[in-house]
Amino acid sequence: TAIQGISATTWDSWFSILSPILPEAAKQRFPGMKLHKLAGLVGSQDPHSGYLGLTSHWTNASSIVIGAKEPEALFHSTSTWADLREFTQQMMFLDSITYLPDDILVKVDRASMAASLEMRVPFLDHRLVEFAWSLPVSWKVRAGQGKHLLRQILYRHVPRNLVDRPKSGFTIPLESWLRGPLREWAESLLSEQQLRNDGFLDPRPIRQIWQEHLSGRGTWQYHLWDVLMFQSWLEEHKGCSSQPLCPVVNTARVGSYK
Fold first, then answer.
1. 3 state DSSP class of 5
2. C-alpha pair distances (Å), 253 with each of 61, 169, 174
3. Any idea which of 44-48, 78-82, 143-147 has the lowest mean pLDDT?
4. Above pLDDT 70, what percent of the chain?
5. Under 8 Å between Cβ of 205 and 64
């Protein structure tokens, strides 16, 4: 599409220039990356495939892992989903059984334990969760803005300017790190020869996005990080099959690159 024809970095620059005149809702972190992702969803056949696209990095496993097929997971097993009328509710349900326990809560738990803190999550009190699920979607999302009911309560106690402002996450500057201090480390793990010798991943798509990322023509830090974590793990455990509890990686190859 025309949107994807312009690099994510260029979109970021334009948004930065226009920031003083943009409405608050348009002020996003990594706007270029988000525009590219949304543009890729235009051709989605149905809401379900669109949701899978939004929650995935590599949307086609066989395009990168040699001889692979994505295993069946909760995202695909529609028979296990809650019986909900609106797809907005289905997305909330899937987020609550996947993204929440496997991502958000994991990060909070690891960060708090690293600082010797004991964390609690009052919003996950079962009574509050049950009450939230009893509410209609219109009380949660209104005029394109989420957490509607919670915002109305906060307005009574907190100044609006502290509530209605862009979300600030905990994202590390991975995009620039891969082009800077982590570049040499990443290049060693993403080299074509290394990928060919390991025999798990197809070097072609990986090398392509790596070069696009380095040149600024693309913003692929999350796709690359998935590969780097696997490659780093593989490198760590090579040749340790004689040790107890060592992952067997050398004999579990799914194919060979040709």
1. coil
2. 15, 37, 29
3. 44-48
4. 83
5. yes
Average pLDDT value for the chain? 82
DSSP for 143-200, please give it: TTBS-HHHHHHHHTTS-HHHHSS--------HHHHHHTTTHHHHHHHH-HHHHHHH-S
**Cβ atoms < 10 Å from Cβ of 44:** 14
Give the residue among 63, 21, 57, 23 at the shortest CA–CA distance from 40. Answer: 57
Residue the block writes with tokens 């348009």: 26
Model confidence pLDDT, tens digit, residues 47-80: 777 777 777 888 777 889 998 887 777 777 777 7
Burial 103-122 (b: 16+ CB within 10 A, else e): eeeeeeeeeeeeeeeeeeee
Query: pLDDT tens digits, residue range 182-193?
Result: 999 999 999 999
- Length of the chain counted residue by residue: 258
Query: Residue 48 and residue 42: Cα distance in Å, rounded?
Result: 13
Residue 72 DSSP symbol: P
What are the φ/ψ torsions at residue 194 (nearest 5 degrees)?
-65, -45
**DSSP secondary structure, 65-134, as one string:** BTT--PPP-TTT-GGGS---SSHHHHHHHHIIIIIIIIIIHHHHHHHHHHTT-----GGG-HHHHHHHHH
Among residues 222, 210, 203, the alpha carbon closest in space to that of 179 is found at 210
Residue 4: which of 26, 30, 37 has the closest Cα? Answer: 37
Q: Name the one residue in this structure whose structure tokens are 């990986």.
A: 206
Please, which residues have CB within 8 angstroms of residue 148's CB and are 6 or more apart in sequence? 138, 139, 140, 141, 142
User: Alpha-carbon distance 76 to 60, whole Å?
Assistant: 14
**Can you give the pTM of this predicted structure?**
0.74
